[in-house]
UniProtKB/TrEMBL annotation:
Keyword check for Transit peptide: no
Designated name of the protein: Zinc finger CCCH-type containing 7A
Record has Glycosyltransferase as a keyword: no
Chain positions of all zinc fingers (C3H1-type): 456-478, 591-619, 723-750
GO biological process, one term: miRNA processing
The TPR repeat ranges on this chain: 89-122
Pfam family, one: TPR_1
Domain C3H1-type: from-to ranges: 456-478, 591-619, 723-750
UniProt keyword terms in alphabetical order: Coiled coil, Metal-binding, TPR repeat, Zinc, Zinc-finger
Top-level taxon in the UniProt lineage: Eukaryota
Positions in coiled-coil regions: 745-772
Record GO terms (molecular function): miRNA binding; zinc ion binding
Length: 812
């Protein structure tokens, strides 16, 4: 064992030296033949290292090794050095196996095709091609690929199993293979198989290609768990890299997958002492490498392989804006440094975009288990960032289709609160993170085990992973962080719930102390009196405050007492007259001091009264200054604090035991005390207490729009929305199409390609919604998305398009 470790260490040193040399412009100290041997050995070493890390379960790292080897092979070709075709074939086939292991089926299929171009008889590449096509929902193509593979290795159990699985999905009759009797003589060798012809001789007549969606019984469809293929084989595993020993069981170590930007970007941590401002520009910084105690509170990044090697500061993503489009770089000299919502560099755009989509967390841009890391996750730290509460719910109800939210039964804590089923709560409970904002969002936290991968599931982020608990990747950022914390602290789910309760109890005590402190001091500027009145009555010349219950104003008209219908009035000692005060200006940054509008000073009427950022009275200036100095961002919070000053306990939000942090409402554990017995829509965050209400919800247009819509619709698609006709317009190619965007046909191959990709994406989202019973079984009215119905029911265009049945089977 020690000898193998020494050989591997020596090989890694040779790889580092080789990469360092070819990245330089130094001449090779030898002949051209020696240089050719040097390059080939470097490629072979990378190939061997990729196989070893694959065997250890580090699939992302193995992809890096294979990719580096293929890049050097391209470089060698430019130097008139020919890398053996057999080695290139193995590199593509092995990288395809690694891509399959992490669920990147498109990339795996592409590598399989490249390997088959070099050797069309590579049965490992054929098998992996069939697996990739199956996962992508292209079942007919997958069947044809595995049929060719079965001719090469007819008795391989994994190939046989895959063939039978695909036959079931295609509705084909499954038959046993004929086994020839073994005849041995002293002069004749033993054959494991014979060349009985091409795949064309073994094509089966399809009785029925696809069934209707409602006829598919998903309970009998075999599942694919997406792990490395070593567990599937009795012989040399077809899903593993060529030439590597068999892996017995899953890797014991938890694999920390690289972040999505690892191949193109570099990141490091810094602080104000090591990253120093050198000029007036937003990018005028220099990195100081002297030894000091670094706080590591700033994120730096740079793009690899660019001439500019300077580290760029990556600020926190702006969150106080509803903008959902792509990010752009700030033009010219920024006049809002520190508050600008435009990016200052491409590195900032790349990180912000993935952060908003939930693909990465800043803490994951570094190895959280590295020797110099300061990332130490705890329950309070997670809740401070993500808010909400950790709680146990009934796992059986939570996994029900559709989802049901049930807690412990009040009368019998050993049972769940569902009025009919009443499952055994202690045996079936699951840990859930609950976040209550405009709606309630539930995130299940599955138990951490040695198979879990510390990375986000890309399927769950895009359209929902239908492998659910069988998936080894985290299905939410909160689940990922809990897994990381458990890996560090070995903390149980019970301890997480207890720590969460302690955190919120201490937060509630602190909030109570803050409320008492506010009540003790006089509220508002010392020279002003303040009151809130009904805006509708004020316009009619009346002063009407809220009634005792604060639902209506005290006037006879009984106007609704809502946030947008009340105004704040102030009266100064100098001028005993009530004056309205407008909301604080939204212009950023807020000026160091507020000034009086020059129009008002001149005794004239301001022409920009709706947008003027200058105060229109001394009283307004004084109140704005008070709000700025006391971190009161809007009139709603001003009203809440004013209510508390009048009589402690009157606040609308604080009465529900809520806290505000940075202007955002934080709900306390008492906010989650209600029990829900009906169905819960995880897409919309809506609970329905009756079957009628549930049917009304899932058939509503707003809900259907949530089924198909996502952030990708705004940021990922460049061309028009698909019309349902997936053909290129011949008139457009000739330059004679006059219909422009009204044309039902695609304007070019690129638009057609995007239409097909978008169709696949929408079908996957629809398949997930169907599986979770978020679409009524007989509901096919999807508005502009109704063209997907033709994809579901079509039996004639199997080779042209992917059907919903195929996608559903793939996900099972």
């Amino acid at each position: 064992m020690s000898g193998a470790c020494e050989d591997r260490s020596r090989r890694w040193q040779e790889i580092q030296k080789g990469l360092q040399f070819i990245q330089s412009t130094l001449p090779f100290p030898g002949s051209q033949d020696q240089y050719e041997v040097f390059i080939k050995e470097l490629v072979w070493n990378l190939f061997g290292e990729g196989n070893d890390v694959f065997k250890e379960g580090e699939w992302t790292k193995s992809i890096e090794m294979y990719t580096e080897a293929l890049s050097i092979a391209d470089y060698a070709d430019s130097e008139d050095i020919c890398i053996p075709t057999s080695l290139l074939e193995k590199l593509y086939a092995n990288r395809a196996a690694a891509y399959l292991s992490i669920g990147l089926y498109d990339q795996a299929l592409e590598d399989c095709e490249k390997a088959l171009q070099l050797n069309e008889g590579n049965y490992r590449a054929l098998y992996r091609k069939a697996k990739s096509l199956k996962e992508l929902g292209r079942h007919q193509d997958a069947y044809e690929a595995v049929a060719k593979c079965s001719l090469a290795v007819p008795r391989d159990p994994s190939v046989t199993q895959l063939t039978q699985d695909l036959a079931k999905m295609l509705g084909l009759k499954i038959r046993k293979a004929y086994v020839r009797s073994k005849v041995r003589t002293s002069h004749s060798p033993s054959y494991s198989f014979m060349n009985l012809g091409s795949a064309e001789n073994y094509k089966v007549v399809y009785v029925q290609c696809f069934k209707k969606f409602s006829e598919v019984d998903f309970r009998h469809i075999p599942r694919c768990n997406g792990r490395a293929f070593s567990s599937l084989f009795n012989k040399t595993p077809m899903g593993m890299a060529v030439g590597m020993p068999e892996v017995k069981g899953p890797s014991a170590a938890v694999d920390l997958a690289k972040n999505p930007l690892a191949e193109t970007h570099e990141f490091r941590q810094a602080c104000s002492m090591c990253y120093i401002k050198t000029g007036p520009g937003v990018l005028d910084y220099a990195l100081n490498t002297e030894e000091h105690k670094c706080k590591k509170d700033a994120l730096l990044g740079r793009i690899k392989h660019l001439p500019d090697k300077a580290w760029k500061l990556i600020r926190p993503r702006p969150t106080k804006t509803q903008y959902v489009g792509p990010y752009y770089i700030c033009k010219g000299n920024c006049t809002y440094p520190g508050h600008c919502t435009f990016a200052y560099c491409q590195e900032e755009i790349d990180v912000w975009t993935l952060e908003r989509k939930g693909f990465i967390s800043r803490e994951l841009l570094f190895d959280p288990f590295g020797p110099k890391s300061n990332v130490r996750l705890t329950v309070p730290k997670i809740l401070q960032e993500h808010h909400g509460i950790f709680m146990f719910l009934c796992g059986v109800c939570f996994d029900h289709k559709p989802r049901i939210i049930s807690k412990t039964n009040k009368d019998d804590p050993s049972l769940c609160s569902h009025p009919v089923t009443k499952h055994d709560f202690e045996d079936q409970k699951c840990l859930v993170h609950i976040l209550k904002e405009n709606t309630v969002r539930y995130s299940k936290i599955r138990p951490l085990n040695h198979q879990c991968q510390l990375d986000l599931c890309r399927h769950e982020v895009r359209y929902g992973c239908v492998r659910e608990d069988e998936c080894f990747y985290a299905h939410s950022l909160i689940e990922l962080k809990v897994w990381m914390m458990q890996h560090q602290l070995r903390i149980s789910h019970e301890s997480i719930v207890q720590e969460a309760k302690k955190f919120w109890n201490s937060t509630a005590s602190l909030q109570g102390a803050q409320v008492r402190l506010i009540a003790q001091r006089r509220f508002g500027p010392p020279n002003l009196k303040m009151m809130f009145v009904c805006g509708q009555c004020w316009r009619n010349g009346q002063l009407s405050e809220a009634d005792k219950n604060k639902k209506y104003c005290s006037a006879k008209a009984r106007h609704t007492w809502a946030k947008d219908r009340r105004v704040v009035l102030v009266s100064s000692i100098e001028r005993k007259k009530w004056t309205t005060v407008r909301p604080l200006p939204t212009k950023k940054p807020i000026p160091s001091q507020f000034e009086i509008c020059m129009h008002v000073n001149a005794g004239k009427r301001c022409q920009y009264i709706g947008n003027c950022t200058f105060a229109h009275s001394v009283e307004e200036r004084d109140l704005w200054t008070y709000m700025k100095e006391n971190n009161i961002p809007d009139m709603d919070q001003l009203y809440e604090q004013w209510l508390q000053s009048q009589k402690p306990g009157w606040g609308e939000e604080t009465s529900t035991n809520s806290v505000r942090e940075n202007g955002k409402q934080i709900h306390m554990p008492t906010d989650y005390a209600e029990e829900v017995a009906g169905n819960h829509c995880w897409l919309c965050g809506k609970n329905c207490n009756s079957e009628k209400q549930w049917q009304q919800h899932i058939t509503s247009e707003k809900h259907k729009d949530r089924v198909f819509n996502s952030e990708d619709d705004q940021n990922c698609w460049q061309y028009r929305f698909p019309t349902g006709t997936f053909k290129v317009c011949e008139r457009f190619l000739k330059g004679t199409c006059t219909e422009d965007d009204l044309c039902k046909l695609a304007h070019g191959e690129q638009e057609l390609k995007e239409w097909r990709e978008r169709r696949e994406f929408l079908l996957m989202k629809l398949a997930k919604a169907r599986k979770d019973h978020l679409i009524a079984p007989n509901d096919n009215d999807f508005g502009k998305y109704s063209f997907l119905n033709t994809e579901v029911l079509s039996l004639t265009a199997v080779s042209e398009c992917t059907t919903l049945d195929a996608l559903q089977c793939t996900f099972q």
